[in-house]
Write a structure and sequence with these properties.
Strand content: 25-35%
Shape: globular
Number of strands: 53
Oligomer: single chain
Radius of gyration: 35 Å
Largest sheet: 25 strands, parallel
Number of helices: 7
Length: 783
């Protein structure tokens, strides 16, 4: 809707003080007559879709009282307009638009009342004018997320500055930080992250910033040193700088600054509250004094080269609730010295090698998030984990844990994420999920789990990711999971699952399904086209919005779900499941029949792998509907007919394998199909044309069906027939009594099964029910 529909220029001007029409759908140009209202003090038009501003702000004559102008989060384009008639402005917000050009020295000249400027998240560039820093009442200057290249060329007059917040993060500022920055005596927040600064910062500079509470130099290339000359101390002294006695509660962010050692000036920051040194090159032990700051609540030293905890560790701060140590080289035992008030602990991707303490709940009674993935922990999962009653995320993946999974883990009230993949856990998956379970992500793949898929999973009504692959689960297709409408990912690959996957008598839909992997099992039968109709996420039109995956809560958002996906012929690990990625992998089973036409409606599908089954019929011409398809593998089946020309219209297709089928005819020419290797088409005796080397000469006919020679029935080899008859007669003497004696029959086959089981270690017994009775059968173990 256009705002002109609500304010008519021909109407008599209204007397108004404040106008706020933010968070609507207004568009078009900003109407100038809004600014002509007498006594107008505040106008807020943020979060709309205005594209341009009035051309002549400077010609307005009725805006002498305007003090607050909010135009953030629109689509306003072009250079910053002149605000010369708004001399009484105290608050100006043009952030999150599409403004271009530079800020000139005249833009804010004479604005003696201006207190707040936010021009962040635009496309402004050039140098920062010194006049911005000379506004006498300005306290908040936010120019983040632009493309400014340089600080002011002239030294500003800071005699009357009141600046408290200076946010220049995410720009392209280069060179040294100018000296005047450290003369802003009222400064509380200094944010210079994500620029191109490459300079040595001497700690004496911070002594002038008496009110500084937040310092963010992250994602630059900095060297922080003591100025030994000015401090009058010896050159080898690197600690006890004595610069912090006057500092208040202080947040320091020096992430990704190429630091190689722990900044020594931090040792005396008694009011240090938040410290982020992640993404540097700091090595050696973690200094023991870091645990003793009484006000420290947040510590992130992840992605460094730390190797151990410096001991002895004493007087650990009771206020520390967030610790991130992931991606270091820390060795030793499970840390039990931390505060009981700890909410978040990430020690993943280190070298911890002990067992999990049997009384772990004693040390971590308040923990919400606990991760020790990618370490070398051993032993069993202790029952005391279940006493961590606030736990929402538990990740012990990629360790050497063994034994059974405690039943009580599945019954934890608040647990949303459970990841125990790639350990040596055995036994059955506990069938103990309670009603209204909070579980969202369950990873148990890569263990030695056996038995059946627990039916109580239907109680996990918010479950989104289920990964049980690479185990020894004996079961049929879990139709009951169809009741979970929230599920996005189902991976059951490489187990011992069998039977059909059709669920005709069960209501429910997988309307959110993005990834399904049933590969390397023993499923058979036809694919259920009717069931595919409920997989609506794979059918959404291109550009249509989907519900993005996010586990609710601060601690959950840090967790990145990952899994192995077979894509483009390779097994790749997705570190994070993208919100719009879709994949179907039914490879290495025994599915039969044609590809269901319903599957050709999956216009958002990225990966389709039906290789190594017994599919037949023709490749549907409607495969051209799968416009987002990037990888297609139909190899090792019995597909016949010609390759449909519509296959060449898939512009994103980068992997194709049609080998080892019964296709014939010319490979469509003049298309991208010629860009694939010869191996994509080998094993089809009737195919010809590039990229194959055999040319299409003469008429192209389908390969003749195999048939028995009609003359072969006129000749009988009696010498062979006599041997066959003798063998049949001898076997009949043994078999006939078993046909009429049930007890002999059972005795015989039980002995045969036992012999085969001992001779062939690849065979396993499977227990099935038919007619209310249990039967034992042999089955070849999946590799």
């Amino acid at each position: 809707m256009n705002i002109q529909a609500n304010w008519c220029p021909g109407m008599k001007p209204l007397i108004a003080v404040d106008i706020d029409v933010s968070n609507n759908f207004f568009n078009g140009s900003l109407p100038s007559y809004l600014f002509e209202l007498p006594l107008l003090q505040t106008i807020v038009l943020s979060n709309n879709n205005f594209q341009s501003h009035p051309l002549e702000f400077s010609n307005l004559s009725s805006t002498m009282f305007l003090s607050h102008l909010g135009l953030s989060s629109n689509n306003i384009q072009g250079p910053i307009p002149s605000f010369n008639m708004f001399k009484n402005l105290t608050h100006l917000d043009l952030s999150h638009n599409d403004l271009t050009g530079s800020i000139t020295s005249d833009h804010f000249k004479g604005f003696m009342e201006l207190n707040y400027i936010d021009l962040g998240a635009n496309r402004l560039n050039g140098s920062l004018p010194s006049s911005l820093f000379e506004l006498p009442l300005l306290e908040y200057l936010k120019l983040y997320n632009n493309n400014f290249q340089a600080f002011p060329h002239e030294f500003p007059n800071l005699s009357s500055t009141m600046l408290k917040t200076l946010d220049l993060s995410n720009n392209s500022l280069q060179g040294p930080i100018p000296e005047f920055i450290f003369q802003l005596k009222s400064l509380e927040e200094l944010l210079l992250s994500s620029n191109k600064l490459n300079v040595t910062i001497y700690t004496k500079m911070f002594r002038r910033l008496e009110n500084l509470t937040t310092l963010d130099f992250s994602h630059n290339s900095l060297l922080i040193e003591a100025n030994v000359t000015d401090l009058g101390i010896e050159a080898n002294v690197t600690t006890d700088l004595g610069i912090s006695s006057i500092l208040r509660k202080w947040d320091v962010n020096l992430a990704s600054c190429n630091l190689t050692r722990f900044p020594s000036f931090l040792r005396n920051q008694s009011r240090l509250s938040n410290l982020d040194l992640s993404g540097n090159l700091i090595q050696g032990p973690i200094p023991r004094w870091i645990w003793q700051f009484s006000s420290l609540t947040f510590l992130n030293i992840s992605n460094n080269l730390f190797t151990m905890f410096e001991e002895p560790i004493q007087n650990v701060s009771a206020s520390l609730y967030f610790i991130d140590l992931h991606s270091n080289q820390i060795q030793g035992n499970f840390p039990t010295f931390l505060s009981k008030q700890l909410y978040f602990l990430d020690c993943s991707m280190n070298n911890f090698s002990s067992i999990i303490p049997s009384d772990i709940s004693t040390y971590m009674s308040s923990t919400y998030f606990l991760s020790f993935s990618n370490n070398s922990l051993s032993g069993n999962l202790p029952q005391s984990l279940c006493k961590m009653s606030y736990l929402q995320a538990l990740d012990f993946s990629y360790n050497q844990l063994k034994g059974e999974i405690p039943d009580c883990l599945m019954r934890m009230e608040y647990l949303k994420i459970l990841n125990l993949e790639h350990n040596k856990l055995d036994g059955h998956i506990p069938d103990a999920f309670p009603q209204h379970s909070a579980l969202k992500i369950l990873h148990l793949n890569g263990n030695l789990l056996r038995g059946r898929i627990p039916h109580s999973l239907v109680n996990c009504t918010t479950l989104e990711v289920l990964h049980l692959g690479n185990n020894q689960i004996y079961d049929v297709y879990p139709c009951f999971l169809r009741r979970l409408s929230t599920i996005r990912v189902v991976v059951l690959r490489q187990n011992r699952l069998q039977g059909h996957i059709e669920c005709p008598k069960l209501n429910g839909s997988w309307q959110s399904l993005q990834i399904i992997d049933l590969s390397f099992n023993n499923f058979s039968g036809l694919l259920p086209g009717e069931d595919f109709k409920s997989w609506v996420t794979m059918m959404l039109g291109v550009g249509e919005k989907q519900n993005r995956y996010e586990v609710v809560g601060f601690f959950m958002r840090k967790y990145q779900d990952s899994m192995i996906i077979t894509n483009k012929g390779l097994q790749l690990e997705m570190v994070k499941i993208l919100s719009d990625f879709t994949s179907i992998d039914f490879s290495f089973n025994n599915f039969q029949g044609p590809i269901p036409e319903e599957l050709m409606n999956f216009t958002r599908l990225h990966v389709l792998n039906f290789s190594h089954n017994s599919f037949n019929g023709q490749i549907p011409s409607s495969i051209g509907n799968l416009k987002q398809l990037e990888s297609l593998d139909l190899s090792g089946n019995k597909f016949g007919g010609r390759i449909p020309t519509q296959l060449a219209s898939l512009n994103f297709l980068s992997y194709l394998n049609l080998s080892c089928n019964q296709l014939f005819g010319r490979i469509p020419t003049g298309t991208q199909l010629q860009s694939f290797s010869e191996g994509s088409f080998l094993g089809n005796a009737g195919l010809c044309g590039p990229p194959l080397t055999n040319n299409c000469s003469g008429p192209i006919l389908p390969p003749p069906p195999s048939k028995v020679n009609s003359d072969s029935g006129s000749f009988v080899d009696w010498s062979i027939l006599s041997v066959e008859l003798g063998s049949v007669f001898g076997l009949g003497i043994i078999i006939m009594p078993m046909l009429f004696c049930k007890r002999w029959r059972f005795w015989y086959w039980n002995h045969v099964d036992n012999i085969l089981y001992r001779v062939f270690p690849q065979l396993d017994f499977i227990y099935q029910q038919h007619g209310g009775k249990n039967y034992r059968t042999l089955r070849w173990r999946s590799q």
